[in-house]
Design a protein that fits this description.
single chain, 263 residues, mainly alpha, 9 helices, 83% helix
C-alpha cells in the first residue's frame, strides 16, 4: 500500500516527504551533539544554504534552512544562570537570520503569503528586525495589501540605528523610496477602481426606474402614432372605395339611359 501511495504521489508530495525525512534525520543527529556543536553544525549548514540561494536554487536552500532551525537549542536547564543569554544568542545568531532567509527564498519563488508569514515570525522574535520589515513590505505589495506594506516600511524608517536588528544593505535601503511610490500608486488605483465600481452600481440602480418610465412613455407615444396612422389609412381606404363606387355608378347610369332609349 505504501508503494502504491508513492507511485501516485506528485513531485511536490515527494519533495515534502524528502524534506520531512531529512529533518527527522537531522534531529536524530543533533540529539547526540552538545549545544555548542549544534551551533557549529547549523552555521556550516546555513553557509551551504546561502550558496544554494546565490546560485538560484531556492528550494534546496529552503530545505537546508529548515534543517538549521532544528539546531536551535532552548532546552538548557532553567537552573543555569546563562539560560536566557543562550536563548538570545540562538535567536540572533541562528533563528532570526534563517527565518529571514526563508522569507527571501519565498520571495524569489513568488510565494508572497509564505514570505509574509516568515517575516511575521521573525518580527515576533525581534520587532526591530529591519530585513523582516523590508521583506514583509515587498510580499504585501505583491498581493495588493498596500496599506500594510506602507506600514512596514514606515515602521522601518522610524527605527533608530541603535535599535536595528539585521540592518539593510545599501542596495536594499535605496530601493525603499521606489517601493513606497509603487505602493502609493497601487493604493490610488485601487481607490479609483472602487469609486468606479460604486458609481456604476449607483448608476445602474438609479437609472432603471427612469428607463422603465421612458419605455412606458415611448410605448404610449408609439401607440398614439399607430392609432393615428390607422385612422389616416382607414380614411384613405374608405375615400378610395367611395371614389370607385361613384365611378362605377357614373358608368352604369349612361348605359341605363341608352337602354331606355332603345326600348
Amino acid at each position: 500500500q505504501t508503494n502504491d501511495n508513492l507511485e501516485d504521489a506528485t513531485a511536490s508530495d515527494l519533495n515534502v516527504l524528502s524534506t520531512k525525512t531529512k529533518i527527522a534525520e537531522t534531529a536524530h543527529l543533533l540529539a547526540q551533539l552538545s549545544p555548542e556543536e549544534k551551533i557549529v553544525w547549523a552555521s556550516s549548514t546555513k553557509e551551504e544554504a546561502n550558496k544554494y540561494f546565490t546560485n538560484g536554487r531556492y528550494q534546496e536552500a529552503m530545505q537546508l534552512y529548515v534543517q538549521c532551525l532544528a539546531a536551535a537549542d532552548f532546552s538548557a536547564s532553567r537552573s543555569n544562570g546563562d539560560n536566557q543569554s543562550n536563548k538570545s544568542n540562538n535567536i540572533d545568531a541562528l533563528v532570526l537570520p534563517v527565518v529571514c532567509n526563508l522569507a527571501a527564498c519565498s520571495i524569489q519563488l513568488k510565494d508572497w503569503k509564505k514570505a509574509a508569514s516568515f517575516c511575521n515570525q521573525a518580527l515576533a522574535l525581534r520587532p526591530q528586525c529591519a530585513k523582516a520589515l523590508y521583506r514583509r513590505g515587498i510580499a504585501l505589495l505583491e498581493i495588493d495589501e498596500y496599506d500594510a506594506a506602507l506600514e512596514s516600511w514606515d515602521t522601518l524608517n522610524k527605527l533608530l540605528s541603535v535599535d536595528v536588528v539585521m540592518p539593510l544593505s545599501e542596495q536594499e535601503s535605496l530601493r525603499i523610496p521606489g517601493l513606497i511610490r509603487q505602493a502609493k500608486l497601487g493604493k490610488q488605483r485601487q481607490r479609483e477602481h472602487a469609486k468606479r465600481q460604486q458609481l456604476s452600481l449607483q448608476k445602474a440602480f438609479s437609472s432603471s426606474p427612469t428607463k422603465k418610465s421612458k419605455n412606458k412613455e415611448s410605448s404610449v407615444e408609439s401607440t398614439v402614432e399607430l392609432m393615428s396612422l390607422r385612422e389616416i389609412l382607414s380614411y384613405i381606404y374608405f375615400s378610395i372605395l367611395n371614389f370607385f363606387a361613384n365611378l362605377l355608378t357614373g358608368w352604369k347610369s349612361p348605359t341605363k339611359k341608352m337602354n331606355s332609349k332603345q326600348e
